[in-house]
Amino acid sequence: MTTMESLIGLVNRIQRACTVLGDYGGSDNAFSSLWEALPSVAVVGGQSSGKSSVLESIVGRDFLPRGSGIVTRRPLVLQLHKTDHGSPEYAEFLHLPNRRFTDFSMVRSEIQEETDRITGKTKQISPVPIHLSIYSPNVVNLTLIDLPGLTKVAVEGQPESVVQEIESMVRSYVEKPNCIILAISPANQDIATSDAIKLSREVDPSGERTFGVLTKLDLMDKGTNALDVLEGKSYRLQHQWVGIVNRSQADINKNVDMIVARRKEREYFATSPDYGHLANKMGSEYLAKLLSKHLESVIRARIPSITSLINKSIEELESEMDHLGRPVALDAGAQLYTILELCRAFDKIFKEHLDGGRPGGDRIYGVFDNQLPAALRKLPFDRHLSLQNVRRVVSEADGYQPHLIAPEQGYRRLIEGSLNYFRGPAEASVDAVHFVLKELVRKSIGETQELRRFPTLQADIAAAANEALERFRDDSKKTVVRLVDMEASYLTVEFFRRLPQEVEKVGNPGSGPASAAVDRYSEGHFRRIGSNVSSYIGMVSETLKNTIPKAVVYCQVREAKQSLLNYFYAQIGKREGKQLSQLLDEDPTLMERRQECAKRLELYKSARDEIDSVSWAR
Fold this sequence. Notes:
Layout: H1 3-20, H2 30-37, E1 40-45, H3 51-59, E2 76-82, E3 90-93, E4 96-101, H4 104-119, E5 130-136, E6 142-146, H5 162-174, E7 179-186, H6 195-203, E8 210-215, H7 227-230, E9 242-243, H8 249-253, H9 258-271, H10 284-324, H11 332-355, H12 362-377, H13 381-384, H14 387-398, H15 408-420, H16 423-447, H17 455-489, H18 493-497, H19 513-520, H20 523-563, H21 566-572, H22 577-583, H23 588-617
Parallel strand pairs: 1-6, 1-7, 2-5, 7-8, 8-9
Antiparallel strand pairs: 2-6, 3-4, 3-5
């Protein structure tokens, strides 16, 4: 195989692989861009201009649907692969990857059936391409795209918009700077009315991408010829015009072999008095070689940009492969190591959230700095220490024997009743921090890239972490409630000793114990009791405002940092290989994506190596 054939064959293989891997016509990324960076040939012409016959002549096989009106209703991406001499000819469709067609009449039927599967048995069109590869020793390496024929009028069964739809579809291919336009025009019509030439002039005004092809030379009126066009006098292109003589309808009806048709075509030009001097530059075989040679020059000129795009694709794929991770090992020991590594990766991110490396841990401080003080301020001490309630509590505490100096039992009951209110905010602080920790666990699992491959392990880690947090919360609640109970179990005596003592009024001789008793039950007396209790509760509130966060951090946050997955680690160590494999049961979508990336990576590296070898061979 020559260097030229190797180069064009390489491009064909890359295009084929891009198509198989789903990169053709995909999203705007480096993968789909690779297809567009590779040159291809779009066959453009009006309906019944002879497009199908030209393609069949180039291939040397009768394989395209025929009929009147619009026959090509979907783009046909035709990739020709030259094989060694004596190799069997066969065709493959992308939508039937495991089936080879050696009967080319079956290829024609499949094209028709695949078209109908998308468009229905109507005259509708579709931009969804059919991909067909033909392997033969009688072809040159080429990628040809057969497009629906341009038309000016919608036929019966077609919407009026079909004219514009076809033109838009054809333009979407030929506007691309790497597309070579094969403009087919029938010789028995005025070239000025050619739909193909009109469109190619609009998208390629310089004509550097356009090859003009004249068909039906043998059907021109007697005494006329197309020399003015073929010699570039009536319409000049940068590339020469090529004349084609297709099989006649009679030949088609008789199933005349394409090899015989090629021989007849050569004989026509060789013996033609009009075109004999151009015979060596006419015919479908010459056209195929001309396109192949031009493709080689285009590819050589674009090798640097193609290589650059391939290198960019390789970098992106390797980055994605790193992101997706390596395939899971089958050995139980390696699987256990993988699980522990994944757990450590999660634990690291979780700690970063708590320590401030990532957002979220500040919400715990918000519980202590805002939520807890606000809850303490809202406690109903005003109602509990109202004059009426203080009088009631003190009176009930005295029983039948009124207090003589200070109502100690009344004080204790008022204080104990007030301290009970602190349980609510204390437990609420525990629950609030628990909620934050659970949310950080959820976020950390989501942010651990390596874990995304393993939904089962994600669920198990989340369950184990939340179970541990529940235990930490229970311990924390017991601790903060103990703090409140400790304040109630032993009052700070010094606080009351520092309070100013009531001075009993000693008035006139008539004043005595009775009047002192009345003073003890006066409104001012009870107000002083309520005020003293309020001061004491305020002192306790300040104490708890400092000690509750300490207890919560010690019992919940500290434990979460140190031993969140300790129990999980102990259980994992007891599991057998099959159970470990279940934990590392990857998301099928990720497994499929990794396989696709691996195939693409292999393709692009192979392409880069082949391009380098062909470049050196120049």
